[in-house]
Amino acid sequence: MSVAHYHSVEETRSRMGAYAKSAIAGLVGVGLGLAATYVATSGAFPFGAAHSGPWTSWPKAGAIDSDPYARAIIARQAAAPLGNGEGLAFVATTDDAGRPLDGACEYTLAGTPPVARLWTINLFTPEGRLLPPGPGYRALSSDQILRAATGEFEIVVAPSARAGNWLSSPAGSPFAISLNLYDTSVSPTQTSLEGLKLLSIARGKCS
User: Fold this and answer.
1) Which of 110, 131, 166, 182 has the fewest CB neighbours in a 10 Å radius?
2) 29 φ, ψ to 5°?
C-alpha cells in the first residue's frame, strides 16, 4: 500500500468517525430533549400554582394566555380545564397535616366552600385519572349534599359506607380530591386564591 493511499484511507476513517460522533451526539441530544419534555408534561402544571391549605389551584391553566408548558400538558393529557369565565378547580393530595391521602383511612371534609352556582367534590388517582368503580359514589355535588338545619355539612371519605354524605375511597390505595367551583365570585388570580378558606381535610382512623 502506498503512503498516499494509506493517508487517504486514514482520512476517510477519520471523517467517518467524526460523522459517527456527531450523529451519536445528535441522537443523545434529541433523546434528552424528548425525555425532558416528557417529564415536564407528565406532572402538574409547573407555574402559577395558588395554595390554600391542602388545596392547590392553577387559575391560569385554562386561560387563553396560559404558558406553553400548561398548553402542552393539557394537550398531552387530553384535558379540558375550566376557563376563567367558567369556574375554578382545586386539587388536594394531602390532608391538613400534609400527609398523603390514603384509601385505608377515613377523612372528614368540613367548612363552607366559596359562593358558587354549583360546586362538586370528586375523587381521582393522584395522577388525575378516574378511579375504578367502587361500592359507593366517587363524586358529590352541592345540590346532593345533606345539610344540618344551620346549613352546615360534613363529607366523610372512607372505604366503607357511612351515613350521610359519604364518598367511597379506594381501599388501600392513594387518591386525590378535586373541588370544582362553577360560576363562582372568586377572582381567578394567584394572589386572590392564596389563603382562600376552603374545606378542611381531617384524617380519622386508619385500618
Assistant:
1) 110
2) -65, -45
